[in-house]
TrEMBL record, chain A:
Organism: Flagellimonas chongwuensis
4Fe-4S ferredoxin-type domain sequence ranges: 151-181
Cofactor or coenzyme needed: [2Fe-2S] cluster; [3Fe-4S] cluster
Family named by the database record: Belongs to the succinate dehydrogenase/fumarate reductase iron-sulfur protein family.
Protein name from the UniProt record: Succinate dehydrogenase/fumarate reductase iron-sulfur subunit
Pfam family, any one: Fer2_3
Listed GO MF terms: 2 iron, 2 sulfur cluster binding; electron transfer activity
GO biological process: aerobic respiration; respiratory electron transport chain
Automatic annotation (TrEMBL), chain B:
NCBIfam families xrefs: sdhC_b558_fam
Native species: Flagellimonas chongwuensis
Coiled coil: none
Protein name: Succinate dehydrogenase
Parts of the chain that traverse the membrane: 12-37, 57-79, 100-121, 154-175, 195-216
GO cellular component terms attached to this protein's record: membrane
Keywords, sorted A to Z: Membrane, Transmembrane, Transmembrane helix
Length: 248, 221
């Protein structure tokens, strides 16, 4: 199929970017979206032009490195998949595809379609861990009985790959779904409850410091999340934070 | 202190002030419906609300404070949210993942705010002038005909009805999401959301019915 691509090109963080038009022929439905961009880049390199920079790593939908706002949606029109798992059969011959970086003040563009998502790392560092000695004396996790429902919910929250689609989809560029998933995966388990009060306060404080927007419960994050992280995590974080603050 | 500064605290403030205003709507629509079914009861209730010192000097200031807090916090959140995305998308498909009402609360809120200005001008300022500026004597029978006469002009009735449509849209998202903001998302949420959506339709519909009823049934002397 033949595609008309409108791609955001930006030399670096301090240079203004713009949309550049490309026409790409010979795209097959079985190609992934990133393979389609690989082919475009091969053409650009063969013509002596600079290739389009984009983030990618595992290409198996598990690492959270790939991003891209495709035709106005993070990770494109498909549901529960990352950009690397989006296939070109979702598009038709002659389609125009607008490809932009994830947009948020807290995710500044590094180059072309690559944004700096280290704000998520700093939120995680602020409290997304449990303080246990892992130098050989750790107790087997299975020695502590855990309710099956709680274990499942914690696992569901832990499947967040931190790709940033929630921020990209939200009209307010809010990071509540990511932060709440990271709070929830510990809040639901006995090992995480020891530091629950400080964790939620520190992670929310860091989230605010990074300049993300406020959650207005539109639910866009949940719909666009490639891992199906639920809004119930945001409610849980709201509860945890209220309880932690009232405790002082 | 951390609660005051945090983004989550702003959510709590929006949710709690919104829920407070919802409870006021229940009282307001109940008394207003009496103007259709029992003008005498309407006069009696309105007179009580207008002259009871607890209602006038305690509940009324709290209500006005609730309205101010809700819309000021709404503006603060909107400004912060705009700052959180300093470069917008060339193409943003908001309709793909979120309902229109949830994405445009600021606009439905602005219409309601403009309506409140008209509503205050129509009733509250008139009432304050009647009681405290002109210092007229108490007249427990005046409320029904004053209300019905307000809806004689077609333009005012239409403005009120349009505002109630926007109120419905605002409540459709706001009422249900207030409990999510306060951390409630459990087995009762589905039932509560249904109730909130019914409320968001029924209450504004009742207000619109009252306005249209009085427009179509003027008092003939």
């Amino acid at each position: 199929m033949k595609l008309y691509l409108k791609i955001w090109r930006q030399k670096d963080a301090s240079t203004p970017g713009k949309i550049v038009d490309y026409t790409l022929d010979g795209v097959e439905g079985d190609m992934s979206f990133l393979e389609m961009l690989d082919i475009l880049n091969e053409e650009l390199v063969s013509k002596g032009e600079e290739p389009v920079e984009f983030d990618h790593d595992c290409r198996e939908g598990i690492c959270g490195t790939c991003s891209l706002q495709i035709n106005g949606e993070p990770h494109g029109p498909d549901r529960l998949v990352t950009t690397c798992q989006l296939h070109m059969r979702k598009f038709n011959d002659g389609d125009t595809i607008v490809i932009e970086p994830f947009r948020a003040t807290a995710f500044p563009v590094i180059k072309d379609l690559i944004v700096d998502r280290s704000a998520f790392d700093r939120i995680q560092q602020a409290g997304g861990y449990i303080s246990v000695n892992t130098s050989g004396n750790t107790i087997d996790a299975n020695s502590i009985p855990i309710n099956k429902h709680a274990a499942d919910e914690a696992m569901d929250a832990a499947t967040c790959i931190g790709c940033g689609a929630c921020v990209a989809a939200c009209k307010n560029a809010s990071a509540m779904l990511f932060t709440s998933a990271k709070v929830s995966q510990f809040a639901l388990l006995p090992q995480g409850q020891v530091e629950a009060t400080e964790r939620v306060q520190n992670m929310v404080r860091q989230m605010d410091l990074e300049g993300f927007g406020n959650c207005t419960n539109t639910g866009a994050c949940e719909v666009e999340c490639p891992k199906g992280i639920s809004l119930t995590n945001i409610a849980r974080m709201n509860r945890e934070y209220l309880s932690a603050t009232l405790k002082g | 202190m951390s609660l005051i500064k945090s983004s989550l605290a702003r959510k709590y403030v929006m949710a709690l002030s919104g829920l407070f205003l919802v409870t006021f709507l229940i009282l307001h629509v109940t008394i207003n419906l009496a103007s259709v079914f029992s003008p005498d009861f309407f006069n009696e209730a309105s007179h009580f609300m207008g002259y009871n010192p607890i209602v006038q000097f305690l509940m009324q200031p709290i209500l006005i404070a609730g309205v101010i807090v809700h819309f000021v916090m709404g503006f603060v959140l909107e400004i912060q949210n705009k700052k959180a995305r300093n470069v917008g998308y060339v193409k943003y498909k908001g309709s793909a993942n979120a309902p229109w009402v949830s994405r445009n609360m600021i606009y439905s809120g602005l219409v309601i705010l403009a309506f409140l200005a008209l509503h205050f001008y129509d009733f509250w300022i008139h009432e304050m002038a009647y009681k405290y500026v002109e210092a007229n004597p108490e007249d427990p029978t005046r409320y029904y005909h004053e209300t019905v006469e307000k809806f004689a002009p077609f333009w005012r009735t239409i403005l009120y009805v349009v505002s109630f449509v926007l109120l419905s849209l605002h409540l459709w998202h706001g009422f249900a999401s207030s409990f999510q903001s306060m951390g409630a998302n459990n087995k009762y949420t589905v039932g509560f959301t249904k109730f909130a959506k019914i409320f968001a339709v029924v209450v504004p519909l009742a207000f619109a019915f009252i306005a249209l009823y009085h427009h179509l049934n003027p008092i003939t002397h």
